[in-house]
């Protein structure tokens, strides 16, 4: 390739990245900021509203964002220009094995030790959602995070916002969800659900009681205070270090964007009711960003996006077609979990709990695929992004 062609290629690449960044990350972040007043009143609503929003978000984009994982090795290997290509068959086979083994292990873990599995799932989500935002900042080409240590700190902050801040701001609802999930796996002798309908209700069921008590340390004021302090400290450190980079010549706009997003997410998770807040975030933040990232490794989608009017819509339609079969597969996993758990699945809380366990089973293998993509794209390679 001539130098001129290479330069033109690089500038095309930057244009398409910036378009995708605008539609899948920056505009949704502005929309979330605009939604803050709505978020602020959600603690006044019944939790079922949050469950409905979570279910809708999962139905519309949440499940789909991982449903093209089987094509990721194929596309990333082809687009990366490094190493040998990967055939469709190998791509699908490798990802299916990873999903079957790791997803199965997660379900078994919930049966054997529901409290530990729940805590592990929150930790995994922390890692995964933080990993997702670091990848988005890399697509945006920010250059105030040149080292893996700074990126790790960003991961801790960004993943902790949805997972840790609600524990500090709205512990009752957080605990309710934890008990719903754990309660799925502790049926009482009559076979009805052992899950408490509200914190402390149905205290006559000993097994559910024991399970609920195991969650106590997580909600102790000292734990919540420590979690809040770690999150505040990590945020200040991360943004402070970034600012130092700006003083040393890094792009100020990239840092301002990072800081702005962090502030919006802090406000969102401090104010909004946890289930509602996480439902909106999962769909409109994490999933959309990941879909945008995947469009960039699909050459057909890239030419859709650069085609101008309706380009992003066409790329999304293409994504929806690719994702449709395994989105349905994901919902079958939800159904499978509902049938497998020992308790009856009767109300909105049980529906959320079953969905979360199914999502947990799908998330562990999804994280492996995304980590592979991160490696392939050099998201953690030292040096400036972009
Ligand atoms: C809803 C909810 C919770 C957990 C949500 C989780 C853990 C969701 C994970 C989703 C994933 C991993 C999606 C894939 O990318 C908490 C924090 C327990 C309590 C508050 C309400
Ligand atoms: Fe994801």
Automatic annotation (TrEMBL):
| Keyword Repeat carried by entry | no
Q: Mind telling me which residue stretches traverse the membrane in this protein?
A: 24-45, 51-72, 92-119, 225-243, 263-284, 323-341, 353-373
Return the EC number: 1.13.11.63
Any idea which UniProt keywords this protein has?
A: Cell membrane, Dioxygenase, Iron, Membrane, Metal-binding, Oxidoreductase, Transmembrane, Transmembrane helix
The reactions it catalyses are: all-trans-beta-carotene + O2 = 2 all-trans-retinal
Compartment(s) where it occurs, according to its Swiss-Prot or TrEMBL record: Cell membrane
The entry's cellular-component GO terms read:
plasma membrane
Q: In what way does this protein cross or attach to the membrane?
A: Multi-pass membrane protein
Identify which top EC class this enzyme belongs to: oxidoreductase
Pfam families, alphabetized: BCD (PF15461)
The entry marks the following residues as binding Fe cation, namely: 65, 128, 286, 290
Query: What would be an example GO MF term here?
Result: iron ion binding
Cofactor(s) this protein requires = Fe(2+)
Q: Which InterPro entries match?
A: Blh_diox
One of the protein's GO biological processes: carotene catabolic process
Q: Which family does it belong to?
A: Belongs to the Brp/Blh beta-carotene diooxygenase family.
Protein known as: Probable beta-carotene 15,15'-dioxygenase
